[in-house]
Description:
This protein is of the alpha/beta class.
Amino acid sequence: xxxxxxxxxxxxxxxxxxxxxxxxxxxxxxxxxxxxxxxxxxxxxxxxxxxxxxxxxxxxxxxxxxxxxxxxxxxxxxxxxxxxxxxxxxxxxxxxxxxxxxxxxxxxxxxxxxxxxxxxxxxxxxxxxxxxxxxxxxxxxxxxxxxxxxxxxxxxxxxxxxxxxxxxxxxxxxxxxxxxxxxxxxxxxxxxxxxxxxxxxxxxxxxxxxxxxxxxxxxxxxxxxxxxxxxxxxxxxxxxxxxxxxxxxxxxxxxxxxxxxxxxxxxxxxxxxxxxxxxxxxxxxxxxxxxxxxxxxxxxxxxxxxxxxxxxxxxxxxxxxxxxxxxxxxxxxxxxxxxxxxxxxxxxxxxxxxxxxxxxxxxxxxxxxxxxxxxxxxxxxxxxxxxxxxxxxxxxxxxxxxxxxxxxxxxxxxxxxxxxxxxxxxxxxxxxxxxxxxxxxxxxxxxxxxxxxxxxxxxxxxxxxxxxxxxxxxxxxxxxxxxxxxxxxxxxxxxxxxxxxxxx
Length: 504
């Protein structure tokens, strides 16, 4: 069964599935080929007739990610600036949830099965998932080498802004209320949400934000981003300012060099990457630019997102998934070197190790490493974002996802991205089985999903299925811990958190 709506660029034909109106592959900007490859997104031309929106659109070029994300990988191409909409009623005026996918800014898409928006739509929310430029196409900072590409280091963020502008202009046709837009995302998507909270061009495009497992400490300084771009150009055999040579570089060659540069990180040449040398992410939003004048956390602390309601947090054991495959490589020497580097001195590193070990007396070196990295990359940034936003909005809530996957003898724990199938209430999807096993608790999915629905609808995540959840404060830091039995925690891991004062 089909459904049809009219938007600013023409008519769209979607499908009706289980009573929901679904539109896929809807373009919100022009293709990124030719002169548009590194430029800010350009307006989409109108079309005649009725455009089919029953099939997924193209995604940004990327390497396959491990399952369940990106497997099998949809087709990629220049016409990748598109989005998907799930609506329960195209004639209504419902709150809107815009989801920004993760994938370290070089992978992922809005069409992954885990992001199916049907559960949100069944609960009275218009759900939108978007694609945006990734890798070098989205985040190669060419401004200091090619003035005509002044916004290139943030093209992916500008894509997201273009999608939000599209929502403001068109979402009413799908039954959405443009005055009630919540943006959300996880990992690089959470970092994107933080970037949008900091970006002057995004002001007024949303009223609420949910950065998951990615907060405002992300990004690359313009100085470092310029060095990375110089290395990319060198490998492309393109001299700075030679626009003709750059135009001749194929997407395939650019992608090849992008992977080469990523593989340099963590190796003997990694020092050229400055503050992101050990992150494996040389392509991220660039701050110290017109699009992002400051690193997001600094902008948010200064009030860039004043009045925006925020729900933020992370999983309890984020980084286990990144290190478990290399468990046998970790030893005490590597652990001590890593922690010393993180905390800036042998004395601080030893003190930190002593405390982390005391809290985990039977943990192996890779598990201690994961605990430290979880705090460094996810827990501490989320706390600091909440604290920063609290100065400019009273409506801030914090959560932590604590349910641990039983797979592989619990090796992944409550790891990075595990909460996604619970947030979207998609435990029936094969991705859930891959991550969670065959008996993931539906009760946890209901508790978490309904909290997100409540927040999108009302600006408060409280609902009848969870304990009382106060707003964030810096005295006792109330944090909803989602688990088989959800509980409200206070000042979680306070001793470990105190170690990070003055660090990062």
